[in-house]
From TrEMBL:
<dbReference type="InterPro" id="IPR015720">
    <property type="entry name" value="Emp24-like"/>
</dbReference>
<keyword id="KW-1133">Transmembrane helix</keyword>
<feature type="transmembrane region" description="Helical">
    <location>
        <begin position="167"/>
        <end position="187"/>
    </location>
</feature>
<keyword id="KW-0472">Membrane</keyword>
<keyword id="KW-0175">Coiled coil</keyword>
<feature type="domain" description="GOLD">
    <location>
        <begin position="12"/>
        <end position="192"/>
    </location>
</feature>
<dbReference type="Pfam" id="PF01105">
    <property type="entry name" value="EMP24_GP25L"/>
</dbReference>
<keyword id="KW-0812">Transmembrane</keyword>
<keyword id="KW-0732">Signal</keyword>
<dbReference type="InterPro" id="IPR009038">
    <property type="entry name" value="GOLD_dom"/>
</dbReference>
<protein>
    <recommendedName>
        <fullName>GOLD domain-containing protein</fullName>
    </recommendedName>
</protein>
<comment type="similarity">
    <text>Belongs to the EMP24/GP25L family.</text>
</comment>
<feature type="coiled-coil region">
    <location>
        <begin position="107"/>
        <end position="134"/>
    </location>
</feature>
<dbReference type="GO" id="GO:0016020">
    <property type="term" value="C:membrane"/>
</dbReference>
Length: 202
């Protein structure tokens, strides 16, 4: 067996057969009313008779299918459970044959359920996006209100500073006027005393 990969409802598996007596069997679980298509094909070689047997869990279905380079089965399953898929090859003029097993299964009930889950997920995603948008709007509104409050505080602070400056200027002016008045008074008194002394000396 070389390895395999699974893609959704499709399974691809590569394996090698080295003898015509060799029988390789694989098992797959299918749901009721699953539409399936199973084929086994030869890879990189021609003119090989391929035999494939499909057997249901109750063995009501147990049939061989054959073909040159490919054996194929398709249909709607009327029984749920593990199916057996066996194959062998009439090997001629080669040491081994590489085969590819392809299983395609489509269950409408599972598909409908998956569609419903996807729809619910999309609805949840839309609800989350709406919540995020509302949160962004609230944050923007709060930021604007905070900016307005800060601007109002700045205005009040500017008014308060202006009032303080006015009061300080008034006090400074009053001090200057008082100082000037005192200086004038002292100078006048000084000159008045000087004049009296001059008169007495005469």
């Amino acid at each position: 067996m070389s390895g395999g990969q699974t893609f959704g409802f499709i399974t691809e598996l590569f394996f090698d057969i080295f003898s015509s007596k060799e029988l390789n069997c694989f098992y797959e679980n299918f749901l009721l009313y699953t539409d399936i298509s199973i084929s086994i094909r030869a890879v990189d070689i021609e003119s090989q008779m391929i035999h494939m047997r499909i057997r249901s869990p109750s063995k009501i279905i147990s049939k061989w299918y054959k073909g040159i380079n490919q054996a194929e089965f398709s249909g709607l399953l009327r029984e749920e459970g593990v199916y057996e898929i066996c194959t062998k090859v009439d090997i001629t003029s080669t040491s081994h044959v590489r085969l590819m097993l392809i299983i395609y299964a489509n269950h409408q009930g599972s598909k409908n359920k998956a569609d419903q889950i996807q729809k619910e997920n999309e609805q949840s995603t839309n609800n989350i996006k709406e919540s995020i948008n509302r949160l962004r709007e609230k944050i923007a509104t709060s930021a604007f209100a905070l900016k307005q409050l800060k601007s109002t505080r700045d205005i009040h602070l500017q008014i308060k500073n202006a009032n303080n400056i006015d009061i300080f200027s008034l006090m400074q002016t009053t001090v200057i006027l008082c100082t000037a008045f005192v200086q004038v008074f002292i100078i006048r008194k000084f000159f008045s005393n000087t004049s009296k002394n001059i008169i007495v000396m005469r």
